[in-house]
Design brief:
By secondary structure, the protein is of the alpha/beta class. The chain contains 16 helices and eight strands. The protein has a five-stranded mixed beta sheet, with helices on one face. This is O-methyltransferase domain-containing protein.
Length: 410
């Protein structure tokens, strides 16, 4: 091959994939773990938050380059068919969950006829649905036309976030997405939680929180939100910025840190134990939801890690005012939250797609959504409580923007 011939963009992307795969393979060799195979064998280990950051980052770069490679290779002629295949796969998952197929497939392979009898469904429909999701590597079919779990289908069977979150997405989010234009026509620009695409789709006038309670959907929604934020790389970026992005060592011993809900607190503590266990002996954490409860006065740090995510602007301002009102001159407010990538950031289009889809989901359900860095800045500086806010920004992570705000109580 003539080395003087310029590499095509497709060729450069292939090179990037090979470079990042080599990093993953090196980790696999050193740690004694195997990489995923096309068979998605159930014995293949999966990456977790304990996986080294450089390996998780290599994985994200593989996904990013592979996504671009697919788009370039497919071109406009394949765009519609690829998009339609995603939609039909989601609806097939809805069917499989409804008829408990993930639970009915045992540890050993099972024939289609026996599985259809167990599920009380026509065998020809069962085959169609299973073979559709198999085209996305969910389940596998053996040479004797039996069905067997693989890594992905097993996760659907046993991971509660998937078991509860995906049906909520199918039953609530997809109908809401289909009525988005109707919501824009009926309530243009509304931020009220009872004037959403979901309200039109499900034909009710309930604010979202009331809907979750009255219709027993709170667990499904919570599981979906955890599912959207449960990627190991996303969790590591999120937690690393809490642990490393603030000078915790400068705090006096036994400093009180008022933190967010206990589930997010547990994630952060696990990360602290792995990366900086000494912090847990120096500072004390107190969980708080920052909404509807009386706040502790004069804590050293008020840590809002993900607390403001998905909330409308007015609710964010109210929380910031409440926190500011109980801060002492020595107190600091730290906000760590996801930031929407700017639309001109072509280096992270796969991450753009994920973050924009999360943002749209929140809009369809809440009439709120994620914010860009500029939108966060404007929102925080719009809080008028008579105090001075010194705002500092820090961004970490090539694929997920994270915002830190420190506000001094004066």
């Amino acid at each position: 091959m003539d080395m003087n011939i310029p590499r095509s963009e497709i060729g450069l992307l292939a090179d990037e994939i090979m470079e990042q795969v080599a990093k993953w393979e090196t980790y696999g060799e050193q740690s004694g773990t195997s990489l995923p195979s096309v068979s998605f064998d159930t014995r293949t280990p999966v990456l977790t938050v304990h996986t080294p950051d450089d390996v998780l980052e290599a994985r994200e770069k593989i996904i990013e380059s592979a996504f671009k490679l697919l788009q370039l290779a497919a071109g406009p002629s394949k765009f519609a068919s690829i998009a339609i295949s995603y939609s039909q796969t989601i609806m097939a998952l809805k069917w499989l969950f409804h008829f408990n197929i993930f639970d009915l497939v045992p540890e050993e392979p099972i024939g289609y006829d026996a599985l259809a009898v167990s599920a009380n469904v026509p065998v020809f429909e069962l085959k169609r649905m299973l073979r559709l999701v198999m085209a996305s590597y969910i389940f596998s079919e053996q040479v004797d036309e039996t069905v067997q779990h693989n890594t992905i289908s097993r996760a659907f069977a046993h991971d509660e976030n998937m078991r509860r979150g995906i049906p909520f997405f199918c039953d609530v989010v997809i109908p809401a997405a289909a009525r988005m234009e109707d919501a824009t026509i009926r309530w243009p620009g509304s931020e009220d939680s009872d004037e959403t695409a979901r309200n039109i789709a499900l034909n009710d006038d309930l604010p979202f929180d009331e809907y979750l309670t009255e219709c027993n959907q709170a667990e499904g929604y919570t599981r979906l939100m955890k599912l959207l934020g449960s990627e190991p790389f996303r969790q590591n970026v999120y937690s690393a910025n809490v642990v490393q992005g603030f000078d915790w060592a400068s705090l006096p011993r036994d400093s009180l840190v008022v933190d967010g809900p206990e589930d997010k607190l547990d994630i952060m503590k696990d990360f602290v134990r792995m990366r900086n266990p000494g912090l847990l002996t120096q500072i004390n954490f107190c969980p708080h939801n920052f909404y509807g409860e009386e706040l502790i006065h004069s804590a050293r740090v008020y840590l809002l890690a993900g607390t403001l995510e998905n909330l409308p602007d007015d609710d964010v301002r109210e929380i910031l005012r409440c926190v500011s009102s109980v801060m002492a001159p020595t107190s600091t407010m730290v906000i760590v939250d996801s930031v929407l990538l700017e639309p001109d950031d072509e280096e992270s289009m796969a991450a753009q797609r994920e973050s924009r889809c999360r943002d749209m989901t929140i809009r369809q359900l809440h009439n709120s959504g994620a914010r860009t860095l500029l939108e966060w800045s404007d929102l925080i500086t719009s809080v008028d409580d008579g105090k001075k806010f010194d705002i500092f920004w820090a961004m970490w992570g090539e694929f997920e923007g994270v915002m830190m705000n420190a506000a001094a109580g004066v």
